[in-house]
Amino acid sequence: MLVLDTIEAIQHQIFEWKKQGLTIGFVPTMGSLHEGHVELVRTSNSACDKTVVSVFVNATQFNDASDFQKYPRDIDADIDQLADLADIIFTPSHEEMYSNGIPSVHFNFGALETVMEGKYRAGHFNGVGTVVSKLFNIVQPDKAVFGQKDIQQYAIIQQLVRDLSFPIELICNSIIRNEKGLALSSRNKRLSVKGEEVALQLYKAINIVGDRLKSSSKISEAYHLGLECIKEEQDITLDYLEIVDAKTLHEVTSIQKGDEIVICIAAFVDDVRLIDNLLLSI
Ligand code: AMP
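Above: inputs. Below: predicted complex with adenosine monophosphate.
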């Protein structure tokens, strides 16, 4: 595996591979890798000849400076973890990525960014749109793999690819969880042992909502069951619990057979912001 930290070096290698007719898969990450990321890399490996993983904690997508500072970083462990899995790990510095300053281009993802993460994290999706566009232009992958864990981010990137005609096929992997159900996240490293137990309540809550919606179409009843489940744990500060349409990500007020919905949750545990979701076919 090559460890590259300049745009020039990675573009040179990609150019060589493309000359040989090889296909490139791309997995953008913020590092502190776990099994969820590793699964994305495996998916890329089975879809493409070469896999590039980027590790870049992108300052422009953090709306909270202390969240950016506290974000877990462990580049040596990341390199070890990917050694036999990826072909390139791309680890640019902030200066390398933003050598011309913070881009003046601004993204507006319309209705998709007015809900959930967009509502609670001002400017977040502009930062995501900017960095993903830059990385797509640098790596020029044939396919890019993302996780359902960040379902709104995936919807935003689908729109970005459509709007800007990136010739890239997107792949979405399902959520990888620990044996108890907690969605793996780099941020979990900041949870205390007790916090990790408390955080399980998020998964429990979205499942309670999902189970109820499988047998009853009464959305507000299901929603309140989920809310009560969260209230059982005093150490959770809820940002949102939402039942949304899987395509538009806007709140649903009624459901019928055949609908695809997602139950989404975001909350703080131990001062760590966690998100999770459950896809449901009615
Ligand atoms: P991050 O490093 O958190 O920015 O995530 C990089 C990619 O990994 C994103 O596409 C995430 O959706 C995906 N990802 C993060 N956690 C998981 C997980 N538990 N299961 C599957 N994919 C994940």
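Strands lie at 2-4, 24-29, 50-55, 88-90, 143-147, 169-173, 236-245, 260-269, 272-281.
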